[in-house]
Amino acid sequence: MTTTTTAYPLLSSIDDPSALRELDRKQLPQLADELRAFLVDTVSKTGGHLSSNLGTVELTIALHYVFDTPYDRLVWDVGHQTYAHKALTGRRQGMSRLRMHAGISGFPKRCESEYDTFGVGHSSTSISAALGMAIAAHLKGEDRKTVAIIGDGAMSAGQAFEALNNGGVADADMLVVLNDNDMSISPPVGALNRHLARLFSGSTFNAARRAGEKMLGVAPSLLEFARRAEEHVKGMLTPGTMFEEFGFNYIGPIDGHDLESLIPTLQNLKNLKGPQFLHVITKKGHGYEQAEANPILYHGVSKFQPEIGILEGKGGGKPTYTQIFGDWLCDMAAADPSLVAITPAMGEGSGMIRFARRYPERYFDVGIAEQHSATFAAGLACEGLKPVLAIYSTFLQRAYDQVVHDIALQNLPVMMALDRGGIVGADGPTHHGVFDLSFLTCLPNMVIMTPADENECRKMLTTAFRHPGPTAVRYPRGTGMGVAIDPELNELPIGRGEVRRQGQKVALLAFGSMLKPALEAAEELGATVANMRFVKPIDRELILELAAGHTLLVSIEENALVGGAGSEVARVLEEAGCTTPLIRLGLPDRFIDHGDQTLLLAEIGLDPAGIVRTVRERLGDEPLLRTVA
Ligand SMILES: Cc1ncc(C[n+]2csc(CCOP(=O)(O)OP(=O)(O)O)c2C)c(N)n1
Ligand SMILES: CC(=O)[C@@H](O)[C@H](O)COP(=O)(O)O
Ligand SMILES: [Mg+2]
Asked: Is the pLDDT of residue 253 over 60?
């Protein structure tokens, strides 16, 4: 670790924001330089979100410099851009274990620091939360300030608009800072982006800067600032911004890397009453050449050498499930012209870029708009197209009513490709996709599949796509077993599992990713292993057959135990009056922290050793292998 006093003399002297506020304003550019170098160094060693963090260094410094944190509340949206905030709020040393097990979280977390005012990871919650805090302050007679910091990508989501709609007429002193870097993870989409681009048109921005300099250079009084802001900046240069229509006092756009603009503007805004809106322009990846040139690649990174940057296109290893999906999507699109594919702002992460390039007219990136994406898919299905909604399991949570009300209830053939099902690792509890089996299994009409290997995934995707009702294929983050892939587009019989290993006494009923550890555990236990494949409709016949031939059943899934696949197994046994005991293995009723995927699964007992341990504990001294007569 190179966080020595010599490497970062100024940064090392800041243990909390009160020390930052002691600095002379002239020292702040140096602090920004050190902080940026520190971030590149740290993230290159730990992995994490890089380009968004590089873009918010000056904004973070300015906010902590101007506001009396933690008494004043900073509410970050998504939270993937808060590494500078963490480094300035007493966590600089801890960042050598960023996103690692028992280390610093990659997102703000209330239990980690009093400066993390609101837990986050999913986007577009900041204005709602900040409004709640601002109204609470008002009701309690407290004079604290509340600031929401939201990106242009996050601003595109419905919830952000719901909050603006509420906040624009609420009796609350709240500042919304729009950090506009003209990027989501991918290039931004939609009409909001067009509106922001218009505000940022060269002439407007330059004129606004000139006016801002003039206005701020003389450190105007509060009233003078307000008058000039309204008359000369807002009225003259940026008439009719959408945010004003919502009832906010819109200021900007200003240069978000220029501390000399940021600080006086924030100081003045701090004193204004009612809903305030500051539009700042930043560059994703600012100050690190490689990240500026390719902010998508540097959005989320693994370890890399800062002097060289990320080496692309090494490839060669096992394909990820995401790649299996991306290949299947292109193959199926070639075979069926009615296929259309939708992503709520996760085209890269979902493996859809080749498809997007090949079939741009059939590719819909709808922005961070999970609810809309689901209902939009339903609409496409109503008209006979075959929508494939590619969505991370964790983000589908936001579209639950749309899945229930718009897709399942109407029995529409929308296929959901659920990536990142199960424990995702370093992103932690906000991103683990461990509830989907529970919240989808209870829905009538759904068909739910969990592939155990890559080739099975491809077959399930085909099966789902051709099924005339709602389906979900749920696969994990990362690679699978490394099996060969059939080039054909073959289907599987719906609702049928298979026995993969014949053993005795104990039968392990594995769902999806759990087949691999189950097979390994079975070697030691001499157990039977079934690859259940379908959570819904579950293979009733197979379960009862296994129950009849074994003395103990063990269901294993990478999902919450409550309401998951094991619950379905239990239901089948109960309905049949079958008394064979069942142990259900899965995620306990608590949120699982961040850390390495393998390590977390082992901690929960969802690895081969854990499965063996559970079975042995249950059987006590009973011999595992039945003596065959
Ligand atoms: C509800 C939800 N959907 C998708 C994501 C994935 N995601 C994380 S950051 C991001 C882009 C956000 O763009 P913006 O707010 O402009 O921040 P930037 O990355 O540009 O700094 C997306 C799509 C998420 N975290 N939450
Ligand atoms: C902050 C956020 O929500 C995304 O950037 C997410 O971290 C991506 O996860 P993957 O790395 O699994 O694509
Ligand atoms: Mg952005």
From this structure: yes
**3-state SS string for 424-435:** CCCCHHHCCECC
The answer to ipTM > 0.90 is yes
Q: For ligand 2, what atom is nearest to the CA of residue 80?
A: 1
Contact 186, 348 (CB under 8 A): yes
> What's residue 30's pLDDT?
98
* Distances from the Cα of 517 to the Cα of 155, 316, 483, 509, 513, angstroms: 42, 24, 16, 11, 8
- Please enumerate, as own/partner, the contacts of 136-142 that have beta carbons within 8 Å and a separation of 24 or more: 137/172, 137/173, 138/171, 138/172, 138/173
Give the rounded percent of residues in the chain with a pLDDT score beyond 90. 89
Structure confidence at residue 171 (pLDDT):
82
Distance CA 339, CA 355 (A): 11
For ligand 1, the distance from its centroid to the CA atom of residue 186, given in whole angstroms, is 9
> Is any atom of ligand 1 closer than 6 Å to the C-beta of 193?
no
- Cα dist from 418 to 164, 183, 310, whole Å: 30, 24, 28
Binding-site residues from annotation for Mg(2+): 152, 181
Is the beta carbon of 395 within 6 A of some atom in ligand 1? yes
pLDDT per residue as tens digits for the range 338-391? 999 999 999 999 999 999 999 999 999 999 999 999 999 999 999 999 999 999
Nearest CA owner, ligand 2 atom 7: 427
**Phi, psi at residue 463, to the nearest 5°?**
-60, -45
The residue whose C-alpha atom lies closest to atom 15 belonging to ligand 1 is 151
Average pLDDT on 487-502 reads 98
Q: Is the preceding peptide bond at 306 cis, omega within 30 degrees of 0?
A: no
Distance 404 CA to ligand 3 centre (A): 31
Single pTM value for the model: 0.94
Helix (H, G, I), strand (E, B) or coil at 360: helix
Question: Of all protein residues, whose CA lies closest to atom 21 belonging to ligand 1?
Answer: 52
Cis peptide before 537 (omega within 30 of 0): yes
User: pLDDT class for 198, splitting at 50, 70, 90?
Assistant: confident
| Residue that is written with structure tokens 């973070």 in the block | 60
DSSP code for 319: P
